[in-house]
Amino acid sequence: MWSLKVFLVLFVVPLSCAFGPTPTFKNVYQSKTALFAGASIQFVKGLEEKVVPNVKLTRSKDGSSGVASFNFANPNCFDASTAKEGEVTGMFLVDEEGELTTSDVNARFANGKPQSIEATYVMTDRDMWDRFMRFMERYSEANGLGFNAA
């Protein structure tokens, strides 16, 4: 009888440890959120765009593809103070999951001065759409935005 109790204790303890929360996962998650608090849009890597864009979304009827069109009026990447940071090489949507990138970026000029940036992000499958929507949820929370259906 005594050996059966020892066996049950030895068998139950490892299973409870295996299904309990692991401190290493919690620490990794906490350090990840401490390093990255939200989502940002960048035109120059490492330089967060302060201007909040107007975003228009379209999606195919079957949900297999979609397009997000961004319009930034007077973005800070055109400021003289940010010129030393680098050149506009694309639009980078950065959050805790990683980075979404597009090179479809166009500047609008008036009287030789940059006025706005228009960028298009194309989603070719449902996974890209879902990933983009997760980014936009984080970005909208960080910038106090809302969603209006057409």
Automatic annotation (TrEMBL):
It comes from the Eukaryota. GO terms for biological process: photosynthesis. It is found in: Membrane. It is a peripheral membrane protein. Pfam families: Psb28 (PF03912). Its main location: membrane. Residues 1-18 form the signal peptide. Keywords: Membrane, Photosynthesis, Photosystem II, Signal. Gene3D superfamilies: Photosystem II Psb28. InterPro entries: Psb28_c1_sf, PSII_Psb28_class-1. GO terms for cellular component: photosystem II. Belongs to the Psb28 family. This is Photosystem II reaction center Psb28 protein. It comes from Proboscia inermis. The lineage of its organism: Eukaryota, Sar, Stramenopiles, Ochrophyta, Bacillariophyta.
